[in-house]
Amino acid sequence: MRIIDFHTHCFPPHLAPKALSKLSENIHKEPEYDGTPQGLIKKMDACGIDKSVVLNIATNSRQESNVNAFALSLLGDEYGGRLIPFGSVHPDNPNVRDTIKTLIDGGIKGIKIHPDYTGHMVDSDELKPIFAACCEYGLPIVIHAGWDPVSPSLIHAPPEKTAKVLGEFPGLRLVAAHMGGTLLWEDVLRYLAGKDIWFDTSLACEYGLNPDLICSIIDAHPKDKILFGSDGPWSCPTKVADYIRSLGLGQKMEENIFYKNAEALLGITAV
Ligand SMILES: [Zn+2]
Fold this sequence. Notes:
Bound molecules: zinc ion
CATH architecture: Alpha-Beta Barrel
Structural class: alpha/beta
Shape: globular
Number of strands: 8
Order of helices and strands: EHHEHEHEHHEHEHEHEHH
Strand order of the largest sheet: 4-5-6-7-8
Strand content: 5-15%
CATH superfamily: Metal-dependent hydrolases
Number of helices: 11
């Protein structure tokens, strides 16, 4: 079956070793590849992944232009169109709308923000210009959702607050990573399941989302809004795919999760 991995990371080769060792320390996990674009593609080949969305994050405003230049570089011929880079916008950027327009003009299909790294609650005023611009341009936006080791005692995107954003920005193409919120899956079922929001499957099995609860969330949710994601290099796509297959969702739903929903959201094909 075709597979689009909606949640991966890689870094410029000269920064990858340092970035990975720092992140590995924070996350307490060993990476599955060396963190470079070529390392990601090798891992995709080994795991039968056709295309990967690469989520880049500007964790401070000084980095934003370098992060976006790297994202655009992943559209180069040497990657054979197999990487789908997302850009990023930092909430301190005073010209969010222009930055997003420039990214779209460059061929970027979405952006990612990480409220725990930037220190903003998901429903805070500082993030509203970003959501408004994404709404205006119909641009998908991925947020880190739920618990994160970088801010263990304050969760910046809990399901209840993410639901408030949906209410305020109807039509926003919002992807809440990690099945709507790492370690807060009862709240995902309560506040987000069934709403107009996408979830990716990343980290669900690593953080112990039990099969009954993930099936309840999937059952309650629109069938076109669950996306396969691994969070590579912090998990192996094959392990996540095996977990999804073990749920017994049936071929049609597996096709949706593994590639059809991503194709529809991004307006691309898996091959
Ligand atoms: Zn991630």
